[in-house]
Amino acid sequence: MNDSQEVRDNVVTSYKDAPTRTITAGGVTFAYRELGPRSEVPVVFLTHLAAVLDNWDPRVVDGIAAGRRVITFDNRGVGASTGATPRTIEAMAADAVTFIRALGLARVDLHGFSMGGMIAQVIARTEPELVRRLILTGTGPASGEGIRNVTRLSHLDTARALFTLQDPKQFLFFTRTANGRRAGKEFLARLKERTQGRDKAISLASYNAQLKAIHRWGLARPEDLSVIHQPALVANGESDRMVPSKNSADLARRLPNAELVLYPDAGHGGIFQFHERFVPTAVEFLAR
After folding, report:
1. Does residue 124 lie within any of the structural domains?
2. pTM of this prediction?
3. Can you give the CATH number for the domain in which 164 is found?
């Protein structure tokens, strides 16, 4: 066995070593990775604006994959997946369901971060038999306060990042306090741990399509979240600028079976900044 490959009994246990695979369904070839022991109900990760497979924090993925099968994937038109990126959250959710069913999965847990949390809400509402439990992080409901401003904030912080030679996520995901700055640098370093077989960056066209989808979500009519009966763990930093933290509180209040966790001195990337606290909480929630 290769010394650098963390594998136990032919099970990949480290996200940086998980091979990128593909599966074709609905006219789309989806790129995905999976790791962790085979489990009856895997955890499917739904990712954020502009993200590809390499944007998941390996500490979060590996922590949950220590006991559960974890699957990450590029939605249509993103990274190494083919097709044109949808301009609505609902279409992204339909694509995610197509991918999940193509893997032969009849029941999954969903972890949706930011835009992925919006997609997860749609799947739970439209395909309730498919979803056992929900983890909704850094996200908000349709029409949620401030979500319509994601495009403006993204453009602003991308410009700030270019001007200061930094990664936009340092501004978008983390507070500007000493703790936030340090956590951002540590997070960005972890994203570079995988050195082989890295994913393609998102295209500008796909990024703009996702921005349009999030903007529409922010302008949409409120949904009746009482129809989502799955247990839900809602988590965020207490100072999220991208999807204001009051949206997390709103989700937890409106979902009939939800619990809320907010991390101090943390922004949109609170679960990454506080991964040592978030992972045990998520593992315990999923194991119930």
Report:
1. yes
2. 0.95
3. 3.40.50.1820
